[in-house]
Amino acid sequence: MDSIKKVVLAYSGGLDTSVILKWLIEKYGCEVIAFSADVGQQEDLKEVEEKAYKTGASKVYILDLKEEFLTDYCFKALKAQALYEGKYPLGTALNRPIIAKYLVEIAQKEGADAVVHGATGKGNDQVRFEVGVMALDPDLKILAPVRDWEFKSREEELEYAQKHGIPVEVTKEKPYSIDRNIWSISIECGVLEDPWAEPPEDAFLITTSPEKAPDKPEYLTISFEKGIPVAIDGKSYDPVSLVNTLNEIGARHGVGRVDMVEDRLVGIKSREVYEAPGAMILYTAHKELEHLCLDRESFRLKEHLSIKYAELVYYGLWFSPTREALDAFMDTLNERLTGDVRVKLYKGTVTPVGRKSPYSIYDYELATYDAKDAFEHKAGEGFCKIWGLPYKVMARKK
User: Fold this and answer.
1) 3-class DSSP state for residue 42?
2) 159 and 191 fall within a common domain
3) Which long-range contacts (CB under 8 A, 24 or more apart) does 262-271 make?
């Protein structure tokens, strides 16, 4: 550490990074530049800035990255229908590469010797931050104090923070670790570490309990252009306003709660709780356009590649040629995904109830059973014979 005089810290103002900032100064005497990304965490970032300076930062960067985060990261995952292990919309995982990008840019601008993150040694974020930094600047040093310092528990960190007058929201009575952005909220620790325990209501930040949600359903029509959401009920929105609006409406109906035991990259199982009302509404609606507009073989292949895409994001491989190649494939399929999907929100559920598109390959005259039926039924006999021929031959051999 003697050669490290200046570092850039990914600073959230939470327990870990607040303690890290003070700890770095006390332990190594280096200059610490704090960087906070506004990705829709609904915090008073002016207060975060003031807190960083009071804790000892020499300079603080606060950057509004909400729109870039949505358009260049979240909407790409949406176009790929990337849900990790079929459930998690990857809000935190998508957030890490954009933070890594700006950590590198600020470090290069400021002539810093290293960048610092607050991830633990058994979490996914350490990989996402560090692989991202390596891919963008292979010569930049990376520090991860939480892997090396003397604290063995969050309680010890709390005591350190209290000793040094560092204000933190986490308390021993409500010890949740929360990572929030405009796309999703990740919640862990505390009672949630027992996979048998139902998440208590105080663990949730924005969503209404489905039992307390309105008794009357609400209908929304989501419009897409080439796989990108652009309007709600015919009204155009910029990306940030659109997702914020869906978050507000979905949260009111208890939509977007995810409770899962997931496989971390480092090989352990972890119980995670998420809130992502806007994201889950969009995933549901986008999926319906895929069903309406994509041919069977394209859809099936995309289903396989969606799993791979989600894994790449979760595993911290955003800045990889594989992800870029998958984006090209997804962009091609999303060229046809322009249209409207109507969804019903009710008591924690999102149900698609209508869909239309100029690129729809649903053919009424082929699908109907009424007098307009144009399907050649006689062709079905030959189709069945050819399709079943291998099994007929096998049956005879038996």
Assistant:
1) coil
2) no
3) 262/84, 262/85, 262/87, 262/88, 263/85, 264/122, 264/123, 264/124, 265/124, 265/127, 265/314, 265/315, 265/316, 266/122, 266/123, 266/124, 266/127, 268/122, 270/188, 271/188, 271/192, 271/193, 271/194, 271/195
71 and 210 together in one domain: no
CB 15 within 8 A of CB 161: yes
Domain limits for position 147: 6-177
pTM: 0.94
Task: Write down the H helix ranges in the chain.
Answer: 15-28, 45-55, 66-69, 75-79, 91-110, 125-136, 145-148, 154-163, 239-252, 277-293, 296-314, 321-334, 364-367, 379-397
For 183-233, the pLDDT digits (tens) are 999 999 889 999 999 999 999 999 999 999 999 999 999 999 999 999 999
Strand arrangement, sheet containing 177-180:
177-180, 185-188, 269-275, 257-263
Do 63 and 186 reside in the same domain of the chain?
Answer: no
The SS3 assignment for 102 reads helix
Active site residues: 16, 96, 125, 177
pLDDT digit string (tens) for 363-382? 999 999 999 989 999 999 99
Q: What angle do the packed helices 154-163 and 15-28 form, to 10 degrees?
A: 60
| Strands 185-188, 269-275: pairing kind | antiparallel
Tokens 């989600």 found at: 310
CB atoms under 10 Å from CB of 391, counted, come to 9
CATH number at residue 86: 3.40.50.620
Task: Give me the amino acid identity at 97.
Answer: P
Whether the CB-CB separation of 91 and 97 falls below 8 Å is answered with no
Neighbours of 280 (CB within 10 A): 23
For the chain, give the percent of residues with pLDDT over 90: 85
Cβ proximity of 141 and 134 under 8 Å: no
Is 82 within a domain? yes
Does 261 lie in the same domain as 342? Answer: yes
Are 135 and 158 contained in the same domain? Answer: yes
Total tally of structural domains belonging to the chain: 3
Closest CA to 52 of 70, 67, 66, 32: 32
Asked whether residue 81 falls in the same domain as residue 212, the answer is no
Q: Rounded to an integer, what distance in angstroms lies between the CA atom of residue 309 and that of residue 191?
A: 31
